[in-house]
Amino acid sequence: MAEENIREFDVIVVGAGAVGENVADRVARGGLTTAIVEAELVGGECSYWACIPSKALLRPGTALHAAQSVPGAADAVTKVLDAAPVLKYRDYFTNKWQDDGAVQWLVDTGIELVRGRARITGPREVQVDGKDGNSYSLKAHHAVVVATGSTPVMPKIEGLRDVPYWTTRGATSARSIPERFVVLGGGVAGVELAQAFARLGSSVTLVARGRLLSTFPEEAARLVAAGLRADGVDLRLGTDTTRVEHDADHAFTVTLGDGTTVGCEQLLVATGRRPNLDNLGLENVGLDAEEGKALRLTTDSSGLVEGTASDGTSGLWLYAAGDAAGSALLTHQGKYEARAAGDAIVARAKGTLHGAPKPWSPQAKTADEYAIPSVVFTDPELASVGPSLQQALQKGINATTVEVPINVSGAQLHSENYEGWAQLVVDEDHKVVVGATFAGPGVAELLHGATIAIVGEVPLDRLWHAVPSFPTISEVWLRLLEKYGL
């Protein structure tokens, strides 16, 4: 390193993805000087390699299928996608992997960008190996925030480390569509990208150790599986992958637990993610991984990391938000946590917050306990918020469920042969909704109404008077409440 620069700020944010940007924005709005450190692109994984490009790849196929499902419209549209304009559409949303617009936003907001790799060297101290060849010693007066996102978890499969497989980054930034494509993993990323590539012309095989989307209700996951099969995806469920090989002709051979093999030109490994905390220097402030386990950070409702070594004056300085905090690996939830952490940092710096924030205050991520929404953007969509029945019972809630098929007039008008399913999880002691799941075309837009009902603890007899418009898919709320007995 050519030169060391020592600089001081009120707050240092490590990671300039969506979460880090939101923390920095909140503390800058609060009048605190702020630096944000990023080794890659400002905007992070979501903007360039995850949420945005994957949805840009999925949306054209969903729109085409929606038109093909409506008599009259079906006669006016093509039968297959042209991959080239879809990839161009994806490139538009990623700004061709250039972050100049995001950098300009930082400048306009008054946030200082330090490009490089950060390492925490002590309480409120961050060392940055700058991409410009310089070394930067940053000191924070109030807080350091870890917002470094997550990284893929690689399964232990013989031969995998020796082959040029894709993670989600490779798939979402693909320049061409492989003729044969194998996806390892039946979670959200696996099913979304399997369907996207199938609709773009790949012959897709998806391999999963269990069933698809195992954290969602099975009835809802079955509808997604049917949608994948309708697009020609070969589902190999309940089977392990034992070996992966790659030959001189650039072809993969994937051996499954039942002894069968699958060949392909490209392999995607989408078997989960973990908090990206490697090489951050957290051991320098008393945060060490347990032997044989990956390091995880535990935070309070304001994002303060628990177990941080004090510097002799105050231990209230290290925060984590988003995937790095490891609660729910979802961009919208991470941004919510970021807003809470940013507001808490400002309030503590100004002396208006002492101790833990009150639940439901702007400085507390209360929704982590009540209502985390999640959408799988396959066709059909799967949208869920709050605990499942089993999770609710484990929490000690006296819970029951009510389920109905989505066959209201709005669904029938939406598409020919519409198939959908809806479920509410009800707290019988308080007569409120605590969880909801919807599966079917276009159901993602139902989810926020359910989230509001859960967060607002709207009694069922009051919810009965929230009249759904006719003819919309939202009429399923009426059918659910009628089946419940209202």
UniProtKB/TrEMBL annotation:
Domain FAD/NAD(P)-binding: 9-330
Required co-factors: FAD
Keyword Flavoprotein belongs to the record: yes
Keyword Flavoprotein found: yes
Domain of life: Bacteria
Segments forming domain Pyridine nucleotide-disulphide oxidoreductase dimerisation: 372-477
UniProt KW keywords: FAD, Flavoprotein
Family: Belongs to the class-I pyridine nucleotide-disulfide oxidoreductase family.
Database matches in PANTHER family: MERCURIC REDUCTASE
UniProt protein name: NAD(P)/FAD-dependent oxidoreductase
